[in-house]
Design goal:
The chain has nine helices and no strands. It has 294 residues and is an all-alpha fold. It is elongated and about 90 Å long.
Length: 294
């Protein structure tokens, strides 16, 4: 539950939001240059990924500081730390892939031994159930341990081989504990997202309902489309609310200075709201990692 406190870290919110905006702008610029040649699109897409990768890891390091009970580092220090250490995460994933590949090759070699006459079928009686359990646990560990906790291991300052050894140890000793904790973290982050989304959708509906009669005359067809979208949302429950939000965005795109202003302001607001559940998830993953290696 301490992961919810992450939303109060204004510097982390600002850095994550800036990361998303910067990555989107770089990617959009690459899309414009794609008209010239696809080479520029590929280059700027990779740059956008790099911005997203290093920026998110910088936020993760700030969350790790909080999870350890320390004040989160300044944004500049977090970015410098990310530039110096985040590449370890790529190396951890590559080394983990090599470990999995070596395991598959070893299993294949053992299965070849099971082709031996007489001894082979007897050996397969033991090999088959062991292989099922080991391979099953290894595959199960990917989404439950490797992917969620590899980044927190790097954020804690561990080296590449140390990260891999820690992940293997967690898989061997605390796999199901980590699984339950990560399910709880994901649920809490999702609940935060639902609550924030409900607040924003309700606020958007009422604000738009008041804006349409007051600004509708000067807002152009875009604002009228906003009103229609939100009225449809009120009439159809949660599904209608989501559909109404889509109608609102469609109405905004229809034109009108007030509608465009609302679209810009609303986009910033919803972008901020999207960062909060992600911060909760990152903080929760850090807490789970620290508990798993304790």
């Amino acid at each position: 539950l301490d992961s919810i406190d992450a939303i109060r870290n204004g510097r982390a919110v600002a850095l994550l939001l800036a990361t998303f905006v910067a990555a989107a702008l770089v990617f959009a610029f690459g899309g414009l240059l794609a008209r010239v040649t696809w080479f520029f699109f590929v280059v700027f897409a990779l740059l956008a990924y790099a911005v997203l990768f290093y920026g998110t890891n910088a936020v993760g390091m700030m969350m790790m500081d909080e999870a350890r009970g320390q004040p989160s580092r300044p944004m500049g220090a977090a970015l410098l730390g990310s530039l110096a250490q985040s590449h370890r995460l790529i190396l951890v994933m590559l080394l983990t892939g090599l470990v999995y590949l070596a395991g598959l090759l070893a299993l294949a070699l053992i299965l070849f031994l099971c082709k031996l006459p007489i001894l082979g079928p007897m050996l397969y009686i033991v090999v088959f159930p062991l292989a099922v359990v080991i391979v099953g646990l290894a595959m199960f560990a990917l989404p439950t341990v490797i992917f969620p906790l590899a980044a927190p291991a790097v954020w804690s300052g561990a080296g590449v081989t140390q990260c891999v050894s820690q992940l293997i140890a967690i898989t061997r000793k605390r796999l199901f504990t980590v699984l339950l904790l990560m399910i709880a973290v994901t649920f809490i982050a999702g609940l935060v997202g639902i609550l924030i989304g409900g607040v924003l959708l309700g606020g958007t509906a009422i604000t738009t309902a008041l804006s349409v009669p007051i600004l509708g005359g000067g807002g152009g067809p875009g604002f009228q489309g906003m009103g229609g979208g939100m009225r449809g949302g009120f009439g159809g429950g949660m599904d209608g609310m989501l559909g109404g939000a889509m109608g609102t965005l469609g109405g905004m795109a229809g034109g009108g200075s007030h509608a465009m202003a609302a679209m810009m302001g609303g986009s910033i607001l919803f972008a901020i709201a999207f960062t909060l559940p992600m911060l909760v998830y990152l903080r929760g993953a850090c807490s789970v990692y620290l508990r798993a290696v304790d």
